[in-house]
Amino acid sequence: MDSFYYKCKWLPCVALWALMIFACGVARAQVTVDVRIDSLELFVGEQAHITLEVSADAKSRMTLPQVKAGDMLTPGVEVVEVTRADTQRLNENARILVSQRYCVTSFDSAFYYLPPFVVDVDGKEYQSKNLALRVLSVPVDTVHTDQFYGPKEIMKVPFSWADWSPIFWLSLLLLAWTLLLTYFYIRYRDNKPIIKIIKLAPKVLPHTKAMQEIDQIKAEKAWAKEDSKEYYTRLTSILRTYIEKRYGFNAMEMTSAEIIDRLLTENAESLDELRALFQTADLVKFAKYSTLINENDANLVNAIEFINQTKREADPKAQAVPDEVVVEQKRSRRTLLGMRVGLAVATLAGVALLVWICGMVYELIA
Question: Hey, which of 87, 220, 236, 262 has its CA 20 to 30 A from 243?
C-alpha cells in the first residue's frame, strides 16, 4: 500500500516533465512566416516596402520566394528592389530569423490584393498572410488651368571664381614648370651648363694682350720656321683683333685694303709698314709666296712698332671694368645620370599635375 502511494505521488512530476519536453520539441519544430508593409496607401509612382520574416529551427533548410527586381507581385504592382536576406540567431543559436525586404511601386491607381509569400522549409511549404495596397491618383486642379506651366529651360550655373581659382593657379604652375623643364632639357641636349658661370677677370688693354701674344710668337721663334703661312696667319690675326678693339670696327671681317683705308680716316701711324705687312701676308696665304727669315723678322718688328705708336693707355681716373669670362663646366657620368633621372622625375610630375587639372575641370563641367 505504501509502495503504491509512493509511486502515485511522483506521477504528476513525471507528467509535467513529459509535457515540457513535448512543448520544447513542438516549439523547436515550429515555423512562422510573417509579412508586413510599411504603408497601406500611396500615390501613383511612390514606393512601399514589404518585409518578410521567417523563423525556423537553426538546422532547417529554407528557400525564400524567388522574386527579383522587375517582377510583378500582382498585375499593377512592380518589384523595384530586393535586398539581401538577413539572418539572425535566436535562443542560443537554436533558432534562426531570416528577413528579406522588397521595394514595390505602382503606376495605376487601384486597390490591389497582394498574394501570400510561399516559403519552403525542409521540403514543406509555408505561406504568409495576405496584404492589401491602395494606390491613389495624384489630385489635379482642373479648375485653375492657367496655373499649369510647361518645363523650364536648363538653368546655366553662374561662374564662380572660387571653383576655378585652384585650376587657374595650378595651370600657371604647370606652364612655369613646363618652360623650366624645356630650358633644362635644351641645355642638357646641347651639353651646356644649366647655370652659366661667369668669372670676372681684370681688364686687359688691347695693346697689352696683343704684345703678350707677340711675345709668345717670339718665344716660339715662329718667324724662323718653314711654314710662313701659319706665322703670318697668327700675326695678322693678332693685329686684326688689336685694331678691332682699339678703333672699334670689325677688322676681322674686312680685307687688308679695307683695314688700311679705314685706318687712314682714324689718322693712324705706321700705315706704310702695316700695309707692307698685310701685302706680304696676303701673298703668303693666297699666292704661296716664300719669304726670307729676315723679312719675317722685319714684319714682326713692324707689327710691334704699329702697336706701340697707336696704343692708348688706360685713364688712371677711370674705374676699371673687369672682363667677363664664361667658365666651362665638365659633367661627370654621375652628374649626367643625375640630370637624366631629374628630368624623368620632373616630366612625370608635370604629367601628374596635368592629369589632376584635367580631372578638376571634368568635375566642374560634367
Answer: 220
pLDDT of residue 211: 87
40 lies in the same domain as 78: yes
Residue 20 lies inside a defined structural domain of this protein: no
Q: Could you give the CA distance from residue 197 to residue 325 in angstroms, rounded to a whole number? A: 9
The pLDDT value given to residue 51:
93
SS (H, E, C) 4-32: HHHHHHHHHHHHHHHHHHHHHHHHHHCCE
Q: Is there a domain that residue 10 lies in?
A: no
Number of domains into which the chain is organized: 3
Residues of the chain with pLDDT under 70: 1-29, 145, 148, 194-202, 222-226, 268-270, 314-332, 366
Inter-residue contact 207 to 307 (CB < 8 Å):
yes
Q: Copy the grid coordinates of residue 43.
A: 500615390
- What are the C-alpha distances in Å from 102 to residues 65, 201, 218? 11, 91, 110
CA atoms within 13 A on the CB side of 215: 6
C-alpha atoms less than 13 angstroms from C-alpha of 266 in its C-beta half-sphere: 18
217 and 175 share one domain: no
Contact by Cβ (8 Å): 230, 299: no
Q: How far apart are CA 187 and CA 335, in angstroms?
A: 14
Is residue 181 located within the same domain as residue 113?
Answer: no
Cα–Cα distance between 228 and 65 in angstroms, integer?
114
> Does residue 254 lie within any of the structural domains?
yes
Q: Are residues 193 and 217 in the same domain?
A: no
- Tell me: do 171 and 230 sit in the same domain: no
Instruction: Let me know if residue 7 belongs to a domain.
Output: no
Structural domain for 179, as ranges: 160-197+330-366
